[in-house]
Amino acid sequence: MTLSHSEFKAIAGRLIPNGQAFIDGKFCDAADGEKFDTTNPATGQVLASVAHCKTADVDRAVAAARRVFNAGTWSRAEPEVRKEVLLKIAALVREHTHELAVLESLDTGKTINDCLDEIGGEVPNFFQWYAELADKTFGKIAPTGPGAMALITKEPAGIAGAVLPWNFPLVMAAWKIAPSLAVGCSAVIKPAEQTPLSTIRLAELMQEAGVPDGVINIVPGFGETAGKAIGLHNDIDTVSFTGSTEVGRMFMRYSGDSNLKGVGLEMGGKSPFVVLEDAVLNDELIEHAAMSAFWNGGQNCSANMRQLIARPLVEEFTGRIIDRVKSFRLGDPLDPATDIGSMITKDHKDMVMSYIQSGVDEGADKVMGGGSDLPGYFIEPTVFQNVTPEMRIAREEIFGPVLGIMPTKSTEEALAVASDTDYGLHATVFTQDIDRAIHMARALPCGTVSVNGFSEGDIKTPFGGYKQSGSLARDNGTEALEQYLQTKTIWIQTKAG
Ligand code: NAD
Fold it and tell me: What is the DSSP string of 367-428?
């Protein structure tokens, strides 16, 4: 049921967000009592005062997680028990969709429609899907002679740390929490400092669903404090990080400098949207092009910001995408008529604006956007044409609504330019020719290639990056379970006969 703008505002008016940490089944302040404010980026209004967790708090959370892990209450529970609890979490998230979506929209500046899609759909579906896997994941038996039986079994890795970004707070929390808990890990989660509130509220719902004390712990804080403490902790067995490539590198170092914990990295991108000359320029293609770039205000790791268009189609493509993008409405994220909300912070807006200036300085043609008169940190969707591969706006991740159109002469040139990047998260290809589609899909060095439509895949398909967009780990699909599992061989000598 879709509510009206005033109904969403009424829900916002009733919310009293909780900013406390959640450690060992209790909501609490940081050990030193320090707090920081989280604000609504669309208005600057302070939403809550949040516990600023540091090493001492992460230590407490890990000790609780270890105690319950070793006790086996969750880690060795019947898989059906974990399944029932995760299904209950899914049900509670669905029951509280409106409240959680409003909280997410206030804390992030994302549109209420996007928040409803994510929290009414993807988040509970995640818990449900991994719940269903809990009692359907089997080990293997190796082929041996009659003198032995060799079992290949999977065991929970132990304590899973997760450090999250601000652009999809509750979705990212679900991506890490659902598979780690499904296999029996205990978890210590650090939401991004800009957007801790929905993850803290999720902890309340998880407790209500019956997750035992200590199995899930939330330690809000900053990267240099809580994030680093997780990365360097000697009793965390595996850490799953989503965020920038720069910080992802640090997690590799933290692991080397501490206990060599497993590290799963999902990081940045500079993904291409390739339109080959045989593609049909219809409304559907233009819609995919626009959404691939401007969904979530461009604050999306797989945003297709380099749009490589076959030269004969460039003029028509440019005109049509401008017409489509002009109809996007910026404004109050709680208004269901709004298409694009606020950038996350003033610093982030300033950074995006500096990229727009660099595009102008380097000679690209800005054909629309680039500013906003609204208070808050809004930026109008911005389109450049005549972007060339060496420009900064073509090479660096901007993480804002800045689309660059790059004309290409041939399929091979499109492939070469699309591949010429340090990143490798995603690519979209439009063509009517099945052979070209398969050639491009095989040749593009990235974790997801989407043909004739922009899609990141769904719960069932692994998501992650090649090159500096990721480690070999994947989120989503059955592949995500591997981040939270150890493999054990049990070799049993048997009497032949
Ligand atoms: P970020 O790297 O600045 O922060 C991510 C998390 O790391 C936050 O929780 C932050 O507090 C923490 N952190 C920051 N510095 C740290 C440090 N020194 N030690 C330990 N932890 C630290 O990224 P962001 O700005 O929150 O998110 C944007 C980035 O995330 C973009 O690059 C985007 O592409 C990427 N992202 C990737 C995916 C994916 O699945 N590949 C999804 C969403 C976002």
Answer: EE-----SSSS----EEEES--TTSHHHHS---SSEEEEEEESSHHHHHHHHH-SS--SEEE
